[in-house]
Design brief:
With 173 residues, this protein is of the alpha/beta class. The chain has one domain: Rossmann fold. 28% of the residues lie in helices and 21% in strands. It is built from 5 helices and 9 strands; from the N terminus they run βαββααβαβββββα. Strand 4, helix 4 and strand 5 form a beta-alpha-beta unit. The longest helix has 14 residues. It is globular and about 40 Å long.
């Protein structure tokens, strides 16, 4: 398997912590972990296998067209990526207790942009394994990527990452 590019945002906090956990489980020598805040669409050219990590944060996220974090400036870059030969997997952080109507919404925003660009996306996760009321992250009955709730289900994070990696790693080029 070729080296994986793992792009995440925002810098600091839970998304970065989960990105680091994912990199450790894959093997840090097999993945480049990069903050999306410092990335451009051209940086994707270095990888055939790409993992993207995003968080859903408060009302500014679902009242706007795009998440209000490090992804703000980068989302428009996604229209300039060369998707040929690339495989994407997504993970998103959210809070299913405080925001049950918007659980991992940013995951869905990101996923829909990739779908519009005809990206190959792997790693969809069954929605029935999670408690929430509504989510833009659910597309055709499954989450478009791995949902993580470190606030209220942190004890499930490591096993969810491990199961997800077992699903996606064999599908990477």
């Amino acid at each position: 398997m070729k080296k994986i590019g793992l792009f995440y945002g925002p810098i600091g906090g839970s998304v970065e912590q989960v990105a680091t956990k994912i990199a450790k489980q894959i093997g840090e020598d097999k993945v480049d972990v990069r903050p999306v805040k410092e990335a451009t669409a051209k940086d994707f050219d270095e990888y055939e296998n790409i993992i993207l990590g995003i968080s859903t944060t408060g009302s500014e996220t679902w009242q706007a067209e795009s998440p209000a974090n490090d992804w703000d400036k980068f989302l428009s870059q996604l229209d300039h990526v060369n998707y040929t030969g690339k495989t994407f997997a997504l993970f998103g952080l959210g809070d299913h207790i405080s925001y049950p109507l918007h659980f991992v919404d940013a995951l869905g925003i990101l996923g829909k942009i990739l779908i519009q660009n005809e990206a190959k996306i792997i790693g969809r996760v069954p929605a029935e394994n999670y408690e929430f009321e509504d989510s833009n992250g659910v597309i055709d009955g499954k989450f478009i990527g791995l949902p993580i709730d470190v606030d209220f289900e942190n004890e499930k994070t490591d096993s969810r990452i491990e199961e997800w990696l077992d699903l996606i790693l064999p599908l990477f080029n």
